[in-house]
Each structure stands twice: as C-alpha cells, then as structure tokens.
Amino acid sequence: MKREKTHFVCQECGYSSTKWFGKCPSCGTWNSMVEERERTELKYINHVESCKPLPLWNVEESERLLTGFSQFNNALGGGLVKGQVVLIAGEPGIGKSTLLLQMAEKYSKSYGKVFYVSGEESGSQIAMRAKRLNIVGDELYIFPETNLEIVLDKLEDVKPSLLIVDSIQTIYSTELESAPGSVSQVRECAYKLAQACKKKDIPLFIVGQITKDGSIAGPKVLEHLVDTVLYFEGERFSFYRVLKVVKNRFGANGEVAVFKMTDKGLEEVPEPSALFLQERIGSPGSVVFPHAEGSKPVLLEVQALTIDAIYTTPQRRSQGFDINRLALILAVLEKEAKIFTRDKDVFVNVVGGMQIVEPAGDLAVALAVYSSVKDKPLGDVLVFGELGLGGEVRAVHFPELRLKEGKRFGFNKAVLPKSCVFEVDGMEIYGVSHIKEAIELLL
Ligand code: TYD
Ligand code: MG
Fold it and tell me: How many angstroms separate the alpha carbon of residue 97 from the centre of ligand 2?
C-alpha cells in the first residue's frame, strides 16, 4: 500500500512542516509538533450524494435505540441514535469495560450482533469477566485486536448493530508512524472508526482512558470529533459511579446516571438522592445541596470540617469540590460575613464520590463552613446559589426542579437566591441576595 503523506503540526499555533521540531519554529512552544496525515478528501465527502435540503417539517426525528439501562437511556436523551459516536472517558479501573460489556449483552439481545473490540484485554480475560458478570451473549462478539485496518475489515464482515472500541489509546493505524496512544493516532483512528460507523448507521462507543490530571492524549482531542462525551467518574474506593453527559448532540448536557459497583458488576441506582442521604446524621458542617446540572436533580450532602490549624499555614482539603473555588468562598466568608478561617484547617467533602462542578454549590459550601465554624447544625434545609466576590448570591439554573426534588425527600425549608424564589406547596422558601442575609437567617 502506498504510504500517505504526513506532516507535523504544532498543536498550539497550527504551524505545519514536513519535518519534526522539538520546539515550534513559529511560536516557540516545546514538544507541540504532532504528526498528522495530509487529508485531500473533504471531511463530509461521503454525505454529498445523499444530502439535499429538506423542509424542516419533512425531516424525521431519529429512532432511539435502547441500551438496556433505563437511567443510561434517560441521560442520553432517550437512548442512542443510529450512527451516534459516543466517547466514554474515565480513569483506569473505574468500570468502563464492565459497563460496556453489560450494555453490550443487553443491546445484543434486542438488536443482534454487537462487536466488542478490545485492545486492552485478551479474549480470555474478557471471558472471565463475562462469566463473573453472568453474561451469556450468543450475539456478543469479542475481538482482541489493536490494528485499525483489521478492525475496519472485520466490521465489514461481521455487520454488527453496535461497535465498542476499548480503548482508543490501544488502537493504531499502520498509515501513521507515531506510536499508539499519540495524539495523531488517537485522532486518526477515532475519525476512521466514526466514519465507518456513520456510513453503516451503527452506534459506536469509544473508550478513552484518562489520568487524574486529564492530560493523557485521548479524550480531550476527541471531544469535537464525537457526538456525545460521557465521563464515568467516582472515587475508586467508593461503590458509586456517576455517568455524566458532558456533550451531547442528541440530548441535553449535564444529565447523570448513577450506578453502584457490586460483585456482579454495575447496577443502576434509580433513586440516587435517597442513596446519598441515607447515612446523613446532620451534624454541624452538614448541608444538603440539590445538584442539577441536567434535568435530573440529585440531593447531595456537603460536609465541612474546620479545626484549629496544626501548622502555621492552615490546610485546605477538598473532595468533590474545586479547591480554588473553596479558597474564594473562604475569602468571601471572611470579608463579607466575618467568618474567619485563616487560623483553621478546612476540609470539605461531597458524600458519595460525586463532584460538584456547577457554581450553584457555592452557597451550600459556604454555609457548611459557617455551620462547622460555629459548631451549629443547620437542620434539614436545602441550600443552593452561586456566590459572587462581593458576597452576593446569584441566580442558578433549575430552581424549580431542585426544590421539587428536595420536597420529594421531605425537606420543607430552603435557602436560595432571591431571584430564584419559586413557590412550592408546603415548603418555606427563603430568598437571599447576600451571604450575610443567609447567615442571619440561619442564626
Ligand atoms: P473495569 O471495567 O476493568 O475498569 P476500566 O475499564 O474503567 O479500566 O473495572 C475494574 C474494576 O471494577 C476492578 O477494580 C474490579 C471492579 N469490579 C467489580 O467490583 N465487580 C465486578 O463485577 C467487576 C467485573 C469489576
Ligand atoms: Mg477497561
């Protein structure tokens, strides 16, 4: 086969050259040159014949294909769509392969052949896992292979209803010289796989390994190339796993599905709020926050613990909440509400291994810290709102959904941004516009 031309492109400034440089001659960045294939064909070439303009009312909505996990379907906006390319990213050992193997079995029972390409594990390793998970799929085909061209060939032969590639970092194309896992290999292979699957109208799952700092070549460089990006998260030593929709061309972002890792694989948790609150004792420093990045809110317990500092530089530690955001909240608490933590170690924990990324969690964290400093429990109160640098409490998304979820679990008091006040039967709602107001209210 004729080797196609490659060139090297700086990932920072886009400078392109036929030679590799350690330092980009254009912008001076080190180690930014990556080999890429020269593409003469246009990206959308195979759509050209079939594409013609249609009036909107004449365009059919795609049918949804069910994964066999109801929460998973909901998170995806109802299920998969033909030709949908999904990237599922997560740290090694979090349970991506387990989830996909379980899904593959269920899917194959409804839609026929599923093709599971595994570059990470051998056939016998997968068979052992399948046995443990009680998976018996006549229509489930395991293919331990890492060569892209062979995978694409087999795809033609097998004609599956779903393709899973685990993981993209292990797959390589012989047309590129760089090593498997490099940016150009990962991008090229994902692109080729996605094109093949789109052409055949079959959904594709691509597994992307990610390290703690998220820096490994892979998921990040693929995000624009796929239709849907899912993050599979959780603390390794906790049972709970959260599948979060980060991008979705066929549904909303921020949707979550919660799973529990058992000795028989992953089980869906239909009522995550109940689960995350089940061991709550409501001691000082504990606040309940209705988390809602997507349409499905989940009640989370935010805990803060403050003690007199052991070292001269007080410590700030946080699990499930951004540490820089915590520093900002502590500063606002000091300046605007005279709650001093400068001589205290501050620990924050979101129970159950969930991550709070949305700013709506600010007020809950601030009040949890306040409650711990004062050693005063806040009781069963729901708290949400974003905190500005001046101590102002700002509006957030989905106030109604959050309140209703709280109501469902017996909360009848809530503190929230004034501009988000929403009447809910049987609930005392307190709208606040400043952190000081919130604190005075709870005093
Ligand atoms: P795995 O799916 O291999 O993770 P990934 O593909 O994301 O790297 O999951 C591995 C972990 O899951 C492993 O540490 C053991 C645990 N596990 C269970 O607890 N129960 C099970 O039934 C299975 C199959 C795995
Ligand atoms: Mg795996």
Answer: 4
Angstrom distance (rounded) from CA 226 to CA 35: 21
Look at residues 226, 189, 174, 221 and name the one whose alpha carbon lies nearest to residue 205.
226
pLDDT digits (tens, 9 = 90+) for 383-398: 999 999 999 999 999 9
Q: Which domains does the chain have, with CATH numbers?
A: 1-60 (no CATH), 66-270 (3.40.50.300), 275-442 (3.30.230.10)
Q: What angle, 0 to 180 degrees and rounded to 10, lies between the N-to-C axes of helices 435-442 and 362-373?
A: 50
Protein residue with its CA nearest to atom 25 in ligand 1: 265
Q: How far is the CA of 93 from the centre of ligand 1 (A)?
A: 6
Does 288 score more than 80 pLDDT?
yes
Nearest to 354 by CA among 244, 218, 261: 244
Which ligand has the nearest atom to the CA of 129?
A: 1
Residues with CB under 6 A from ligand 1: 90, 92-98, 129, 132-133, 261, 263-265
Q: How far apart are CA 95 and CA 236, in angstroms?
A: 9
Distance of CA 142 to the CA centre of its chain: 26
CB 332 within 8 A of CB 401: no
Q: Say how far apart CA 253 and CA 376 lie, in whole Å.
A: 37
What mean pLDDT comes out for the span 417-429? 92
| Alpha-carbon distance values, 337 to 255, 303, 305 (Å) | 34, 20, 18
Instruction: Assign 45 a pLDDT band (cuts: 50, 70, 90).
Output: very low
For ligand 1, what atom is nearest to the CA of residue 92? 8
326-377 pLDDT, tens per residue?
999 999 999 999 999 999 999 999 988 888 999 999 999 999 999 999 999 9
Highest-scoring range by mean pLDDT, 32-36, 41-45, 242-246: 242-246
